[in-house]
From TrEMBL, chain A:
Entry keyword set: Molybdenum, Oxidoreductase
Domain Aldehyde oxidase/xanthine dehydrogenase a/b hammerhead: 18-125
EC number: 1.17.1.4
InterPro entries: Ald_Oxase/Xan_DH_a/b, Ald_Oxase/Xan_DH_a/b_sf, Ald_Oxase/xanthine_DH-like, AldOxase/xan_DH_MoCoBD1, AldOxase/xan_DH_MoCoBD2, AldOxase/xan_DH_Mopterin-bd_sf, Xanthine_DH_Mopterin-bd_su
A Pfam cross-reference name: Ald_Xan_dh_C
Domain of life: Bacteria
EC class: oxidoreductase
SUPFAM superfamilies, sorted: CO dehydrogenase molybdoprotein N-domain-like, Molybdenum cofactor-binding domain
Protein name: Xanthine dehydrogenase molybdopterin binding subunit
Automatic annotation (TrEMBL), chain B:
CDD domains cross-referenced by the UniProt entry: fer2
Highest taxon, organism lineage: Bacteria
Pfam family name, one: FAD_binding_5
Species this chain originates from: Falsiroseomonas frigidaquae
Protein name per Swiss-Prot or TrEMBL: Xanthine dehydrogenase
Keyword set, alphabetical order: FAD, Flavoprotein, Iron, Metal-binding, Oxidoreductase
SUPFAM superfamilies: 2Fe-2S ferredoxin-like (SSF54292), CO dehydrogenase flavoprotein C-terminal domain-like (SSF55447), CO dehydrogenase ISP C-domain like (SSF47741), FAD-binding/transporter-associated domain-like (SSF56176)
Domain FAD-binding PCMH-type: 171-346
Gene3D superfamilies listed in its UniProt record: 3.10.20.30, 3.30.465.10, [2Fe-2S]-binding domain, CO dehydrogenase flavoprotein, C-terminal domain, Uridine Diphospho-n-acetylenolpyruvylglucosamine Reductase, domain 2
Residue intervals of the 2Fe-2S ferredoxin-type domain: 3-86
InterPro entries for this protein: 2Fe-2S-bd (IPR002888), 2Fe-2S-bd_dom_sf (IPR036884), 2Fe-2S_ferredoxin-like_sf (IPR036010), 2Fe-2S_ferredoxin-type (IPR001041), 2Fe2S_fd_BS (IPR006058), Ald_Oxase/xanthine_DH-like (IPR016208), Beta-grasp_dom_sf (IPR012675), CO_DH_flav_C (IPR005107)
Amino acid sequence: MKGAGAALRHDSALKHTTGEARFADDLAEAAGTLHAALVLSDVAHGTLLSLDTEAARAMPGVVAVLGPRDIPGANDIAAIGQAEPLFADPLVEFAGQPLALVVATTRDAALLGAAAVRAGITPLEPVLSIERALELDQHVVAPQTMARGDAARAIAAAPRRMEAEFRAGGQEHFYLEGQVAIASPGEDGEIAVVASTQHPSEVQHVVARVLGGACNGVTVTCRRMGGGFGGKESNASWVAAAAALAARHTGRPVKLRLARRADMIATGKRHPFLYRWTAGFDDQGRVLGLQALLAADGGWSLDMSGGVVFRAITHALNCCDVADVSVTGCAVKTNTVSHTAFRGFGGPQGALLMEDVVHRIAAACRLPPEEVRARNFLGAAGKGEETPYGQKVEGDLIARVWAEAKRDSDWDRRRGEIAAFNATHPTLRRGLGSMVLAFGISFGVMHLNQAGALVHVYSDGSIRLAHGGTEMGQGLFVKVAQVVCDVFGVDLDRIAITATSTAEVPNTAPTAASTGSDLNGWAAHNAAQTIKGRMAEVAARRFGIAVEAVVFADNRVWAEQAGGNRFLEFAELAKLCFLERVSLSSTGFYRTPDIHWDRATMRGEPFFYFSYGAAVSEVIVDTLTGEHRCLRTDIVQDCGRSLNPAVDRGQIEGAFVQGMGWLTCEELWWDGQGRLRTVGPSTYKIPGSRDVPPIFNVRLLEGAPARSETIFRSKAVGEPPVLLAISVANALKDAIGVPALDLPATPERVLMALRGDGEKIARD
Amino acid sequence: MATAIGFLLNGRQVSLPPGTSPTTSLLDWLRGPGALPGTKEGCAEGDCGACTVVLEAGDGARTPINACLTLLGQVHGQAIRTVEGLRGADGSPHPIQRAMAESDGTQCGFCTPGIVMTAWAHAREGGEVHEALAGNLCRCTGYRPILDVFATLADDAAATPVLPAPQAACFEAPGQVFHRPVTLAALLALRAAHPQAWLLAGGTDLGLRVSDHRERPAEVICLLGVPELHALRAMPDGIEAGAAVPYARLLALFRQEPGFAPFATLLARLGSRQIRGLGTLGGNLGTASPIGDALPPLLALGASVTLASSRGTRVLAVADFLRGYRVNDLAPDEVVVSVSLPRPDPADIFVCEKISKRHDQDIATVGAAFRLRLASDRVAEAWLAFGGVGPMAARAKRAEAALAGRRLDADALEAAASALASDIAPLSDWRGTAAYRLMVAQGLLRRLHLRASRPDLPADVAGYDP
């Protein structure tokens, strides 16, 4: 029996490698399926006066051209709050905004039709930078401040003070499978949607809203995604809504699959940030007071920017403590695509603030940044263990992960070796950098911290498991199945893992915020536990013992103890339950206990617990060209008592490399008209295999079960390790001897920083 | 003359119905009519590798290619294997498929079929692992488990296909004609008759127009069946390469031939293994893109091209062949037949450079190739060629002049770097600002000094061994 804690492989692994695993676009198309393509604005800001669709309608194969007037319900695909139109009407707010949808008998006909639609747009002045939006005071999330003490006074009273400004770019998700949805009309106005989505319930809501119907007429399923990373949270909903609209109009199944270019232009990305801060500190590098502004580029609409700002603010001090602090966060409104969830959800951007503070202050004090950071750790001498918003963290774990990473990386010896190399090589410079993280786990939006599951045991002892979580490659399905195995004491092959469906588990949260296994694991546990209780009663009667003495283990149900004389095969007992008319089906529900947040005071305990981790990275830089490489990384990551160490290691490695991409080579580039010009892998460079550190040591923190009551004392791991990639950016600063480095640290930014004009890279 | 497209697919002969568009991408065909959706579309521009399939040659060679860039007319007479074709006769997964699954080499699984096919080819072909994987992007795993599997691959010694001898073919579909001549004379006659037709060799540029931009060309002349364009010969004074020789073959030869190692190092970074399996020098010259990786070395070597038409043949220096931004000297009825690459003198300093955001499979922000001939310690002749810093790849004549007659010391290269500022006129775009491009081009001259003066030291980050 291999339940929780076993390093089982991904349940679909062999199907992935043989090509059998079916993604949405791989499913055989129903007869009569139509294909849709989007008409996108190429103007960043303007008023849509006309849409000339005549040429498109006349093209062979084109069945319909649909715009805002064709929407039976609301032209609104907002995830939260305010109206965000599916099709611009009449205000166009970014280059790439959907204007209409062309439906045709083939995908090519739809794409050619879409290219033939002419939009008449009267241009308005676009706002294309965070700075300009701040000047205009235009926001999608108004400034909000988390404060403790009197930062201004502490800064004024401090022996030294410093002001700085820096930027971090956004990030394209670049899930390998692009956005796709297939909508099929049924009887009585029903719509069945197969979507690549992290949030089937939201797809359901948005489809129902756009069609003007009720949720019970919309069924959404998702077996798996080819990657999500947050990009298929809110953005999957409008893609599905467009497909559903076309299905409603034509009465035929419609597939909308975005080409990579359209996907990159029309869907949101990680928020770029601008940071401005003032700190007061002493000669030992202790930060005594800090005032900071974190301004996210929200893009044209709210989307989920509120949550991103919340997480950026709550993670701005990361693992550090500053007694007197005031952090203001906002998301400005610009005429760019609406930025959205991306692994870490503002947490990585928040954590960059304190790293910038630490590195610049360390340079000013002529101290190693690691020493400065450690002196400011939560729980360090003279520092508290409570975040400015009032939640206590485990300072001992912060100190511990850093100590272990430092030891694993052989820090002191390598510092000397690197110094010797740098003293002799004429142009190459090596550098060592580190990162320590404390990442809060739970959704910032309280009501999302819930999950449901549905478990059936059939009379032959086989088990069917459904829950609200979605599989995007992170191994959620196998982890939750392991939980159910553990409850029933059975092997994994007894459990059928099924597609996520709103028909089986309703009203779910997105699979996001690293909470997938925490929430769905508990929900499935609770469902299984209910059934197990009923089965145990039947077994107890059969054995003539107390219910408490029934033991489920090794695919059997034992009297008194596993391995004893008296047992029933699990299947036998299931059959017995059926014959005795005992229900073998149950839902399960879970909501995260004890968390709360007061928006008015910006205080509370919004996180169920914190995840901790530390990393050390080494880089080498060519001072002639700015080219660089990461040579080695050592990671220690806290996963509590891991549900599946193999899956967790994969999450750590993948998150780190993805974070490295964000911080080093992935650059979004908009032209002067606000058009994104990095619209495919030929122009937008995610890490390749050579970019992974050739020495890459990843270790799960040992002997550290979660202290809160998580599922089997495990901890979430999807997002926190993204922050560990900041160690690479820090190593680059060390190598070039300049603490000020805008991100992503492309060879160009590194060279410019070296030459002393690294503050800004001009946009043409 | 064949009129129906036919090829071996997973060991079975497939013959496509008449009227099938010969410019349908292999990927669209596999996922549609072919009913083999294991091969995925990730980008439709030949960069992500999710659509990787393997071209199986009659000699057993396995070339991974991007199915998104490959047109049906191109694979006529060839053998293709997809992820569905790797299972054993009893239906059991291939050992590579098992290994990838058991080593946690998959997360979302979308890139996996392409990676499995790259692995299957690599198991036979060998070579450096990152070079093999450069054309396959994975967004989930961070590659570590995939690299572990690649480190232990074993060739399965599976049988090689028997391929038919090439014969002339012409495929027609509504509004389209696709010619596949098998003699140079026939090619030149077709070219004279159809000056508007696409000349298709590897298709890494034209395939993109079909796959990504959904163009449907009316006329195509495919160069793959013409033996003269596939000739590749090494001679004492240099290499003669047919215009349609894929980079992969060129790279293999460069690695063996004295004097060409620096060019080989650069070619190993041109596109990916998939792109090099298709892409050709002739194509790079034909598009005359200012960022063609191979162009600066051709200029630095003093290479020449042989052009042919029914009117006759002429030979032109590459420097004279390139005329401007995506403009070359090719007449409407002409084709590039071959390229002559003079062998550098053993005493020459020859260096090829490429600066890009990512080391592998990226387009150059700045490309460069330098060749210096020294006589009694002084620069007798200098060829300094750059790409990506102007409308076309070109030599930097002022910088060359600044070096002439000087010792190759830091001062001389500083002088060349200063002069370079008036040689080049880079633009700003998503790959880099004009200021950065100039700075880097100058930096590459300084790096040349380091390479020449301190061969004992790693000169760049790629050359540093941790």
